[in-house]
Amino acid sequence: MGESISEATIISWKKKVGDPVKEDDIVVEVATDKVDNEVPSEASGILVKQFFNEKDTIKVGDTYAIVETDSKGTPTHVSSDINTENKEASTINSSKKEDTFIKPTQEKLEDKPTESKPIDTPLEKEFSKVIPSNSTESVRFFYSPLIRSIMTQENIDPSELQHIKGTGKNNRLTKEDLLKYLKQRNDSSTEPRIINPENPATKTINMELSEGDQVVEMDRVRKLIAHHMVDSLKTSAHVQSIVEADVTNMVKWRDLVKAKFHQETGVKLTFTPILIEAIVRILRDFPIMNSHISGEKIIMRKNINIGMATALENNNLIVPVIKNAETLNIVGLAKEVTRLSERARNNKLTHSDTTEGTYTVSNIGSFGTMIGTPIINQPQVGIMALGVIQKVPTVLESPQGDFIGIRYRMFLSHSYDHRIVDGAVGGLFVKKVAEYIENWDVNRTF
Questions:
Q1: Which of 4, 156, 206, 224 has the fewest CB atoms found within 10 Å of its own CB?
Q2: Residue 113 near residue 170 (C-beta atoms within 8 A)
């Protein structure tokens, strides 16, 4: 699923139980905090079991389906009642079973305790034993039919159950645990309730509601953004350096060439690719800003991959990445900015479009914001916010003395990780970016 991805939500099943499946056929479509992904089968056969429903959240490492094959990889017979809870044993022979994973694990398997009814089918036992190799605590991956029935009756989102403390074996959720949770939830129904109170990003604050107040649950992406932002603040030692740049020459140049640029390239010339060109140029001279931290090691990245923080219409955020930006001229950068922005707005970004970033840019000026202190996009060590470009009166120096002139100016706000980037380097980096755009050649071609 890519770096920093720990879970996904099922959008839709592309295959039903009993359907024949070929290797690499799309089985399920899932959504992460970055992009939607179609997940292929790893074997050919018959889809004999689905462990999750649409809209369920599943963790990397979970078994989400079973494809049954014979020793030659051809489908075996499956009866029409294969999807029922307790009839698998009568229809599944002793042939090879291929577990379909989001990411396979090699962790030692543990038996699931009996809850509500005996676990007496091979497939239920197989599912109950899947534990992710990167787990640091006992995690429930299966809920009994009784638990699922209560979920349906009480309209409980599956993500809520992940944060209820279970008292069964291996911290599994029992009927009593769920009924106790429901009682507590109903007793506090007049108070705002936020899922995952253990996460500081979504800390529950008890307060009385006034008439007209609304309580709105965060959607999945907003919860993940909240978690990532708090996690970044807990991980990196954030420091900011801010400079103001005179961008008059850059603005004049764009005004001169933007019509011809659009005519010859087919894309509009915005300020974003111009400013990204400047940042990429200075990143070459400051390789420490194009690095990642892994434990106590610094990984210096060869390629410069620029992430663009992009606001979506649903008020969420995504960061598509311009790969190998150091190899692109301003035309190439403009085309990538346009392509990625359009794909983001249309929810068409691929996994590759949102991974492997080495430095991030946030164009807060597009919302009229002058200055910002952006949060670092982990595991990177720097991010720059580009403020709004404004006409302002400015004191100018000349041989005849100082005078007031109208100039275009903007603020560049640079957040960096003080664990490896000191103030002298972080401040000098953003100053050099400002000097690059201040000295823009108004006679250059594109």
A1: 206
A2: yes
Instruction: Domains for the chain: give ranges and CATH numbers.
Output: 7-140 (2.40.50.100), 236-438 (3.30.559.10)
Q: Give percent of the chain above pLDDT 70.
A: 75
pLDDT at 194: 40
Confidence category of residue 414, pLDDT binned at 50, 70, 90: very high
The Cα–Cα gap between 327 and 340 comes to: 17
pTM: 0.60
Q: What is the mean pLDDT of residues 369-374?
A: 94
CA–CA dist 269, 259 (Å, integer)? 8
